[in-house]
Design brief:
The protein has 216 residues and is an alpha/beta fold. 47% of the residues lie in helices and 15% in strands. The structure holds adenosine-5'-diphosphate (ADP) and adenosine monophosphate (AMP). The site of adenosine-5'-diphosphate has 20 residues, from helix 1, strand 6 and helix 9. It is an enzyme of class 2 (transferase).
């Protein structure tokens, strides 16, 4: 399956993607995680992306599209992928459409996670991620690690993302509404959008998602 996950920052895309990718046996491709890995490795790509990310803005399309394409062309993504955080504007969606069409491929679904803004703000404020791998995600109250500050998965140090500060979150939500939300209409026109509530327990949301994808 080829799936795009969409929803505001803090909706739980990364959290759900981890379970869905496992259940569906497809790789979880998060452009945010790829940028953060590049930043921690000190690559040129990471240096280019950091200032945009810290400000809560989108990294320019040329940089993002090239990185996403490169990842989607890896052998493990041959039979499908779960995109998280890409595409993030209508222009990126157009590039993805062209890439897929050129390869004789198509998306199966765009899973839209709906969460009220006050809940998103609480989720972001308590989010803690692992230094080793930003796909290892916790929350200080909703899903605390067994040992405070330590990743359950790999023992790495947990920290708060620089862009999870209150001020940057406001910019990121605005960027979501103005630039990312329009991709939902873009995909609705293709009949691909399934919307679910992302409220409730993580496991409940995963069940809802699997059902919406016809994989319950
Ligand atoms: P996104 O990838 O959409 O930005 P995350 O998956 O990182 O969101 O989730 C944001 C925060 O919310 C994390 O701290 C995560 O542990 C927490 N979270 C995710 N899903 C739920 C849920 N169903 N209920 C409560 N907290 C959640
Ligand atoms: P995320 O981990 O999805 O919350 O993304 C963190 C940050 O990475 C975003 O606020 C952007 O600065 C950047 N980013 C991630 N994905 C994209 C994308 N598709 N296009 C542009 N910037 C992105």
């Amino acid at each position: 399956m080829r799936i795009v996950l969409v929803g505001p920052p803090g909706a739980g895309k990364g959290t759900q993607a981890a379970y869905l990718a496992k259940n569906l046996s497809i790789p979880h491709i998060s452009t945010g995680d790829l940028f953060r890995a590049n930043i921690s490795q000190g690559t040129d790509l990471g240096k280019q992306a950091k200032a945009y990310m810290d400000a809560g803005n989108l990294v320019p399309d040329e940089v993002t599209n090239a990185m996403a394409q490169d990842r989607m062309e890896k052998p493990d993504a041959e039979n499908g992928f779960l995109l998280d955080g890409f595409p993030r504007n209508v222009s990126q969606a157009g590039v993805l459409d062209e890439l897929l069409t050129a390869g004789g491929l198509k998306l199966d679904a765009v899973l839209d996670l709906e969460v009220p803004e006050d809940e998103v703000v609480k989720r972001i404020a308590g989010r803690r991620i692992c230094r080793n791998d930003s796909a290892h995600v916790f929350h200080v109250t909703y899903s605390p690690p067994k040992k405070e500050g330590v990743c359950d998965v790999c023992g790495g140090e947990l920290y708060q993302r620089d862009d999870d500060s209150e001020e940057t979150v406001r910019t990121r939500l605005e960027v979501y509404h103005t630039q990312t939300e329009p991709i939902i209409d873009h995909y609705r026109a293709q009949g691909l959008v399934v919307t679910i509530s992302a409220l409730g327990k993580v496991t409940e949301v995963t069940e809802r998602a699997m059902e919406a994808l016809g994989r319950a």
